[in-house]
Amino acid sequence: MPGAAGSTPVIVGDRIFVTSVSGSDLLLICVSTDGKELWQKTIATGNTDVRGDEGSSASPSASTDGKHVWTVMANGMFGCYSLEGDEVYRFNLQDRYGPFNIAFGMTSTPVLDNGRLYFQFIHGEGIRIHRSDGRLSRRRDRRRDLAATSNHWSREENEHSYASPMLYRDSEREFLITHGGDYVMAHSLKDGSEIWRCCLNPQGASPSDPSLRRLAAGNAGNDRRPVCQGKVLICVRTSKAMSPDNKSALHWKRDAGTPDVPSPLYHDGLVYLCRENGNLVCVDAKTGEEFYEERTTRDRHRASPLYADGRCISPLVMA
User: pTM of the full predicted structure?
Assistant: First the structure.
């Protein structure tokens, strides 16, 4: 690797796509599954390191449909490429959708589904969801008003979310789940309208913590129970009508021992949590009961774990 990055590798066929930095250049790199670099593209320049070497402007992961690969950098530069590295189109999200106002750059990875990319922009003075196919885009503003607490305090939620949206689909329903501020929210894929929301604020009726930013994305299995992570890990019932004070929406929660950056991995009824120190935690997706916590390596873990060939893999994307 030419430099560090916090993105999760994506794989199609015998090709692996990962983002990285080289000096000030922000790169998309294609590597074969036998470890040979096939090509790399400079998507943008002007890397900004975050908290020393904890993050960079190449943190968002790439997306692919098996024919093209899309990548976005924290400064908003977004591009579509063929699997051979030929540029299809490229533009800056800030030019199209407005300037970012977020401390460490826009590191959310867009969700690709049926020829459309869904972008989550939750940042200062702008909470939006965009749907785009490279030409046509639609926008849906995210409702920010918070339900009155028992003390009727006026609260402000943290507008900085670095988490990626999540697509949920079962035999009956489909929606996009966004994750930021005080809430996890579900939106219609047709028009972006809100379907439900569930409160993530662990302080309950007290005002929100202004530092309560979200990093890890959510994940879901096939039993209608998405898991979403903030300072706590929660499992929600999608079959319930959700609101901030609807406790029936919360299936279970885990208050401690959750990662700050890596997203949870859901597979075969189990949820895997890779903590920054390399400890891998496995819990029951139905109950939240912890089965085990085991040590892997003491390298810092920032990329999210993957499942492949019967193994839980925790990538270390380092120079």
Answer: 0.77
